[in-house]
Amino acid sequence: MSVNLLLVLGLGGGVGFLSGLFGVGGGFLLTPLLMMVGITPAVAAATDANQIVAASTSGAYAHYKNGNVDIKMGIVLFAGSLAGGAVGVKLVKILLAAGNAEFWIKVCFVVFLGGIGAFMMIESLRALRPRAPGTAKAGSPKPTASRTRMAGWPLRTSFATSGVETSLLLPVLLGFLVGLLAALMGVGGGFIMVPALVYLVGMRMIMVVGTGLFQILLTTIYVTFLQALMNHNVDVILAVLLLLGSTVGAQFGVRMGRRLKGAQLRFLLAGLVLLVMGKMLFDLLVQPADLIQFAGGHS
Amino acid sequence: MRRGIVAFLLVGHVLAAPPGAAAREEVVSDTSTDEIDIKLKYHGQDVLVFGTIPEGAGIVVKVSAPPRPESLARKGRVGPFWMTVEKATVENLPALYLLHTQRPLAEMFPRGVPRELDLASMVEMAKFDSTVGDARALGEGFVRLKEREGLYVLHEGSVETKKGKVFKLAVPISSKVPPGDLLFEILAVRNGRIVARDRDIVRIEKVGVERWLTDLAFGHPPLYGLLAVGVALLSGFGVSLLFREGGAH
């Protein structure tokens, strides 16, 4: 490993900040950034997971102290994502055998991110509009049509910490979907989980961020362990450097998050999601400088 | 460094040998070190290579690291999109290929560069793990990527000589070069022909903590996994505690 120390600390700090602020892992940013500074793709992806364990510990603990982690919800989501991840890995194999899998996965992802980002952007802008002061609660958006439709689902369970009552199937399915996407795209999926918990389950934004971090913590512990076990890809030293930066960054993110309104947070996250989508679309549409590249991605 | 000095004395000794011995076409070379240690703060290292030159010959130094599988993706157009249309793993191209010469290659080999020093013919021999559509395009792309990383380099005129009898050259070894044995091949060239050669091996090895961690990662993966998770959890908690106590509000 030969990467500039300050650069790694800075990268970790920036990603940790986003993670504490939005409850996303930041893997979707860090993996490509690490590759840009010369870490091999396989090591970047695995080390990322290890680093996110630290950042999300730091962030989740800070949120837990503030009463913003719904442990029950986190564990249910995690259970779903374990199953989703297992199915996702199988699905990737099948798709790869069928050919052109990457293409369709990417297209789906762009559509998916674009949809979520645009929806969240519009909704948060509406909530931020000054002409309706006090009518909408600052913390939670109004129930969506799909949420009302899901009211009839069986196995209704109450999640006391979040103060919501919803079908147990919903978070399990949600976790499953995120796990599936994580396996397909090699990302943690926090930026899908967060809007889904807000709009579909109806949790308060700050609670979603805390719970999201907790769920990401569980997931990345699992992924780090698996990567170390099967692929020997985790670089602990690089991870330690990154996490020094990111744990500190996460603390600042959490503090910043407390100062912002839920809708403001959602607006910023929507911007970030759209940015990632734009970058992906750009990569899809613009001819690369060199048609031959080192193959990135996850084994 | 002491080894280097001893080796220099040795070179002097060879030079002082009786004319009968010197008449044989021979290159005697050595490197300033046999081993490069990868420690925590490793940013690459210069290796000095030096030796004797047969009468009237020019010197080419080739430094290479053994091939290891490296995966490539070829992007292509699918409808309006640019996607990976082919993936293949190169199996037999060196991880490192540095060519240092005393004079321009074309000048040293007016009747054509020998195959072992010619990247283009190496690329023609490239082997892939699967059957590929356009092996040449992938091979040439691989060389471009390696050149961009500074792992495939041709330095013409970088070998220094003294009175046409001894040469020396400092070869910077980048920290991107993976652990393993580096092969230094020293070729003496006269009239466009290789007349003598010598070789030296420099081993790149992880030592200390890096070594211990690598051994653990490959020897005891579950332990390593637990360690990685444990370290991350501890530092995460550590920082949050630090912040709680530091920020009294």
Q: Oligomeric status of the shown chains?
A: heterodimer
Shape of chain B: flat
- Helix-and-strand structural type of chain A: mainly alpha
Count of discrete structural domains of chain B: 2
Distance between the termini of chain A: 21 Å
For the biggest β-sheet of chain B, the strand order reads 2-12-11-4-7-8
- Let me know the largest β-sheet of chain B: 6 strands, mixed
Structure, described:
The complex is a heterodimer of chains A (299) and B (249). With 299 residues, chain A is mainly alpha-helical. Chain A has one domain (5-283). Chain A is 73% helix and 4% strand. Chain A has eleven helices and three strands, in the order H-H-H-H-H-H-E-E-H-H-H-H-H-E. Chain A has a two-stranded antiparallel ribbon with strand order 1-2. The longest helix of chain A is centred in the N-terminal third of the chain and has 28 residues, at 71-98. Chain A starts with a helix and ends in a 5-residue tail after the last strand. The model of chain A is unreliable at 132-139 (pLDDT under 50). Chain B is α+β, with helices and mostly antiparallel strands. Chain B folds into two domains: 2-206, Macroglobulin (MG2) domain (Immunoglobulin-like), CATH 2.60.40; 211-246. Helices cover 33% and strands 37% of the residues of chain B. Chain B is built from seven helices and twelve strands. Chain B has a six-stranded mixed beta sheet. Chain B has a four-stranded antiparallel beta sheet with strand order 1-3-10-9, with helices on one face. Chain B has a two-stranded antiparallel sheet with strand order 5-6. The longest helix of chain B is centred in the C-terminal third of the chain and has 26 residues, at 221-246. The interface between A and B is large, with 52 and 54 residues.
